C-alpha cells in the first residue's frame, strides 16, 4: 500500500486579480503553495507530485521545492487548462496505488485531516473531505427566480484532500472522457458518474478554506496567527 499526494497548483487564480498567480503569492512571508506542501511533507504519504503551470517547472523546483527542502516531491508535472486535465497529468506521474488529490489553494489542510483521508481511501476506495453546510442553499433559474430549496441537513460542502485507489480514479476519468472537463469540479464527481464505486464523505475542517479571492488571504492570516498562538 502506498500513497502519492497530488498537489495542484496549475491554475491561473483569475478571481484573485493579481499579476502573480495566487499559489506563489506571499502569506506571512511564505508562498501560498508552501503551506500545503509542508503539510504533505510532514504526513505519512510516500511521495508528492506537484502540478504547476506549463513552463513553471524550473521555478517551482528552485524557489519552492529546493528552497524549503521538500524532498518528498518526486515529480513536478505540467498542468493543463482545466483542473481535470491537471489532475490527469498528476495521476500519470504518480507511482503509488493510492492517491490523495489536493488543491494547493487549500493552504491550511492539517496533518490530522490528511491521515483521516488516507485511512478513508483505503477503507472506502473513494472518499472526499466535507463539512456540513451552514447556509441555506437555493436553486434558481437563469432569471434568478428560486426553483427549490434543498433540505440543508442533506448538504455538504466539499473540500480536498480527496482520496482514491488510483486505478479507480483513472477509470472514472476514462468513463467521463466525453464530458466537458470544465464541468468536472472535483474528482469525486468522476467516480460518482462512472458508477464504479460509492464515494464516502469524511469530516473535513471549517478552517480548510480555499484561497480564491483577496479577502481569503486576510482570513488565512488569521488562521495562521491563531495556530501560532494556540501552538498547533
Ligand atoms: N488548478 C490546476 N489547474 C487548472 C486549474 C486549477 O491545477 N487548470 C488548481 C489551482 O491551482 C487550485 C485548485 O486547482 O489550487 C483549485 O482551483 P481554483 O481555486 O479554481 O484555482 P484557479 O483555477 O487558479 O483560480 P480561478 O478559478 O479563480 O482562476
Ligand atoms: Mg479555477
Can you tag this structure with a few keywords?
binds cytidine-5'-triphosphate, 7 helices, 232 residues, binds magnesium ion, two-stranded antiparallel sheet, alpha/beta
Structural description of this entry:
This protein has helices spanning 32-41, 57-66, 83-93, 111-124, 166-175, 188-194, 214-230, and strands at residues 3-8, 26-27, 30-31, 47-52, 73-78, 98-103, 126-132, 139-140, 146-148, 156-165, 200-203. The chain is of the alpha/beta class and 232 residues long. It has a seven-stranded mixed β-sheet with strand order 5-4-1-6-10-7-11, sandwiched between helices. The protein has a two-stranded antiparallel ribbon with strand order 2-3. The model has no long low-confidence stretch (mean pLDDT 96).
Which ligands are bound?
A: cytidine-5'-triphosphate, magnesium ion
Tally of contiguous helical segments: 7
Alpha-carbon distance between the termini? 29 Å
- Main β-sheet description: 7 strands, mixed
Biggest sheet, spatial arrangement of strands: 5-4-1-6-10-7-11
Helix content: 25-40%
Strand residues, percent: 15-25%
Mean pLDDT: 96
Number of strands: 11
> What structural category arises from helix and sheet content?
alpha/beta
Taken from the alpha-carbon principal axes, the silhouette is globular
Low-confidence stretches: none
Order of helices and strands: EEEHEHEHEHEEEEHHEH
Radius of gyration (CA) equals 17 Å
